[in-house]
Input
Amino acid sequence: MTKPLLRSRGWTDSAVRDFLPEPEGLKPNPRFAAGGAPMPVWRPVTVEAVEATPEWQDWLERSLRRRRTTLEALAESDDPDFRARLEAVRAAIESAREVRSGGGRAVDRT
Output
């Protein structure tokens, strides 16, 4: 998994640094194929194992809560993009809570 994919799953640069091991490989960067630095990648099984830990789940919930607070403040403007992001964050928090409480189910990607 690349960093852009990790970001779509809620990861931040600091979470990558704090929770994941060193990159498990390098992949050519499609944006800068002629001379760009290769992109670090991690195996899905590694990422999923970290995401299953209580430490990660606690961090993610706190992170999503912080993001929601920021987005709520921004959503007070009349910008519909912020409102859409706010709803996405609310849904992500609710989903994480359901999975954590056993009310939902995690996606098995094996």
User: Anything to note?
Assistant: Helices lie at 3-8, 13-19, 44-51, 54-75, 80-101. The longest helix spans residues 54-75. Residues 1-51 form one domain.
